[in-house]
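Lab notebook, page 48
Experiment: co-folding of the full assembly
Goal: obtain a model of how the components sit together before planning crosslinking
Operator: M.T.
Materials (sequences as entered):
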Amino acid sequence: MMTQHVRGQTAAARGPARRWRSRDRLTGILLVAPAAILIAGLFVVPLVLDGWMSLHRWPILGPHSLAGLANYRELFDDSGVRHALLFTAVFTAVIVPLVFVGGLALATLMQQSRPGVAIFRAAIIVPVTIGFATASYLWLSLLDPSTGIFGRILVDVRLVGQPVNWLNTSGLALLMVVIVTVWKLAGFAMIVLMNGLQAVPSDVEEAARIDGASRLRILWRIKLPLMRRSIVLAVIFVALAGFLSFDQFYLLTGGAPDGSTVTAVYRIYDTAFVQGNLGYAAALSIVLLALVLVITGFELALLPRKGEV
Amino acid sequence: MLAVRGGRPAAARRQATSRRRALAGGTWYAAAACVALLFASPLLFGLLDSLKSPAEAVQIPPSYFPHHPTLGNYTSLSVGGLGIGHFLLNSVLVSAATVVGTVIIAGLAAFGFARYPFRGSRAVFLVMLAAIMVPFQVLMVPMYTVLNRLSLTNSLLGVVLVLTTFQLPFATFVIQNSFSAIPDELWEAAAVDGAGVWRSLRLALPLARAGMITAGLFAFFTAWNEFFIVLILLSDEPKYTMPVALTTLLTGTLGSIHWGILNASVVITALPCLVLYAVLQRHFVRGVMAGMGH
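Observation: model returned without errors.
Model output:
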């Protein structure tokens, strides 16, 4: 850097524009190089290798051999994989509307500028910042069938007679993870949608109110259409978070009961790092990547273009 | 949009707000407080739990408030025989290295893209942006294979490299936005003064401060909270960062989980996140709106 700096000065003194430019180009390449090397080594290479490995029998130990499309053919007949993908889709389909509607309600409530609102907002955003693993440990203790406070509360308000094994009961386990996930993500949706609400000019809103439009109608007909960007951002983020979820299932249910709460990423983890079948896991990764790109494709297609609202 | 908002008479705006305030003051506070309490309650119960004595922690049914609050769980914190400080240190090292690495590497790249474009720099930038669309979860299998070849599995450096790489696209994007906002005149003036790369960069850095803080903040949250990458890449327990180290508490020494210790660890792990959010919430909101946080 230092020598370059000195040479740069002498070149400036001579002033040949052409040499300046070629030096600038080299400077640009050097500045970008560290980032480019990391992206190449740990993103581009793994991406290509993902496809390559998926065409092989590739045990975690020992030699691998070319297998053509055998892994993909097996995927189609694998009821475990089919169940994991279906379960992931159902989980995503459940949390997206819950987080969106919850986030929208929170955003309308917390958007007002009143003294103390920052504290209320912070209480809702805190779960967003603490990470899914930390949140899962916390809820694991709250949901313990004997010593967890969750059961005590439900008993005290007479909702249940006595606590049950929330995380190991069919149906209930999914409900619990949904609660944890919505608790974790609602604050995120609130931030994004609050930003969207603020972009709606309030004189438009007032004009509609004077014309006698109800609050709900104003929200539905005026605000929501004007905040398309925020809505797309929030919905796609939550959809991807649901689609790629792992931590909360790994820690809260461990796939229980009977492997019914194993998500797609959980399946990849299990296939690759528990069973040691890297090739098959790579094929499943490629399928999941294709599905993720479909979701992202929706995002890009639905986001408003420049100049559009 | 901005013009419309700015053009609205301030008096009308004040009037509208005061009318709304008069309409539902008390109701609003009641509703907002209930909702906030609902969201805060899991963490509050975790905090209360962490203050219970070992005897009270196993009480059935559990008590709402600790009868004799004690800091015992915090002072005797150890995970799998090692003091909690050990795992906290791992977490601090990984997070610090990821934040510093991300901000420096992305900062240099953003500066290069904004100031010294070269043939193909646009293509490199686009590849980086494309990386945003591919979540690391679907690349863990080949990534493990690559890192294994480089002897970087079961190493904190390997974890830092993966975390940094996947932070780079957004970080570069956000910081580059800050650099792009710098007017050309400033660069020209710097060039006339004979400023080289180094001095131009030092001149530009303060102006990109907001972008770098946002990038660093999200790098911290990701590194501090990361579970999946650490779980896969590290196999020696002493190398674990907090989120994975706590799994060893779940298997327990005698088959029973010590909830007080677990909740004290949860509180300690959550605390830096709460503090950073409180201090840097503006940057947090900005990052979220830029699409960070995947």
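Interpretation: The domain at 78-289 of chain B is CATH 1.10.3720.10 (MetI-like fold).
Next step: discuss with group before ordering constructs.
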